[in-house]
Structure formats: C-alpha cells, structure tokens
UniProtKB/TrEMBL annotation:
It comes from the Bacteria. Residues 1-26 are annotated as: Disordered. This is Flavin reductase.
Amino acid sequence: MITTRLPTPGDGPAPERPRAAGDGPPHTPLRPMWCCRADGQPWPCAQARLLLTVEYDGNRIGLSIYLAGLMYEAMRDLYRLNPYDAPAPAALFARFLTWATP
C-alpha cells in the first residue's frame, strides 16, 4: 500500500561533543534549553565552536551533518518547551550551521 504519510524521525545524534578537556564542565548542550553547560551561553557557544572546529579539522561535511542533526533536536526540544517563543528556524540555522561552512 502506498501512503503519503512520512514516518516520524527518530532521535538525532547524542550531543556528546566537544569532549571535556580539564576539570570544568564540558561545553555540551544542556537540554531542553540548549544552553552551554559550562558558560550558560546559547549552544554552540564560542568555545564549543572552537573545540568542534579542531575536532572536525579537515571534515567540514561531517561537522555539518553532526550539527544539522543537533539543530533538528534543538528545534524539537525548544518548540515543545515553548511553542510561541522559540527561536525562528532561520535563527537556529544561523546558530548551528552557518559558522561551520568553509
């Protein structure tokens, strides 16, 4: 039987990067608010961007795919948390992906 309904997508990647390097909390997202665990800034914060750029050195496509999955998760969390005051999709795209382009 052919149907036009698409299945509900599963969970995206786990936000485990960037990995911690030291005694402080890692610069990973605190869900469902998607702020940085270490400094409270919107994730990915400046330090997380720097660490992710170093970790994915030479693999910008892999970094973009990882961040796109996390952007989807952030959209899902933020719109469930507060559907009327969540960031616009363009703002989330800029926050998650535009900085990672070569």
